[in-house]
Amino acid sequence: MKRMQDLTAIAAFVRVVELGSFSAAARDLSLAKSTVSKRIAALEGRLGALLLHRTTRTLRMTEVGAAYFDRCLTVLAAAAEAERVVTRMQGVPRGRLRVSAPMSFGQRYLASSVAAFLHDCPEVEVDLDLSDRMVDVVGEGFDVAIRVGALRDSSLIARRLAPSRSLVVGSPAYFQEKGRPRSPEELREHTCLLYAYQASGDTWHFSGPSGATAVRVQGRLRANNGDVLALAAQAGLGLALLPDFIVDAELRTGRLEPALAEYCRSEAVLHAVYPHARHLMPKVRAFVDLLAADFGGGASWRRARVSG
Description:
Elements: H1 2-19, H2 22-29, H3 33-47, E1 52-54, E2 59-61, H4 63-91, E3 95-101, H5 103-120, E4 124-130, E5 144-148, E6 156-170, H6 172-178, E7 192-195, E8 203-208, E9 211-216, E10 221-223, H7 226-234, E11 239-243, H8 244-253, E12 257-259, E13 267-275, H9 282-295
Parallel strand pairs: 3-4, 3-5, 7-10, 7-11
Antiparallel strand pairs: 1-2, 5-13, 6-11, 6-12, 6-13, 8-9
């Protein structure tokens, strides 16, 4: 607050010098003459120096006032430029946009949306961080993060993008050798491929005809990336519980097959999350709007721009 008071006093001092009188400066600033006089007197009091020689007929700067005046011009020019920067940034998307997204989703689908965004917004730079870990959006300085599943941080604004469903998958060779589980409980007899960042740890949750079921599974491979687990499943190393956006192509080509489909009914949601802000930056709004158009509107993520 003190700094802002000093800035208004500096502006008053500069206008008095430029216009040659307190009265002219007061009219220019739409202030009472007494207010201008008090602001400059307060500024002189804080500085401990006389800036202006005043008589009933003349007004001139002291030696200290002249040196101070030159630096005040620099301060006011910097403040005006700061306002122009903010105004420009609030007008059209510009600046650096920091985005966090899961590795597999980012590589398969988000990369194309980012490319389109950069074409649409030539004054924006994108810093894309692909990692399956749950980043601290505010603490790590991200503008937008893509989240799959339940949202934990209620302080963030969330924009729904698309539905997603997790599926139990295995290779045809695995099912031929080990058999196909007929209920979630039978997973205890199978080798499973474990996702290191799964919120429920090694417990897989299902929602089937008889209600909710939770089964603790085990296996020889644990990884922090879904594509690694999908490749392991194709190699016949076990069963994996993975989002449909990772295994969709493999299911369509037959490299992977689903199991327990009637128990995999629960739908997760893909969200774009970003910090709460009274004035949302245009770069964030434009990016989230593009993602909503690519993946949302009731359409499956399969209809995103990358899929044609």
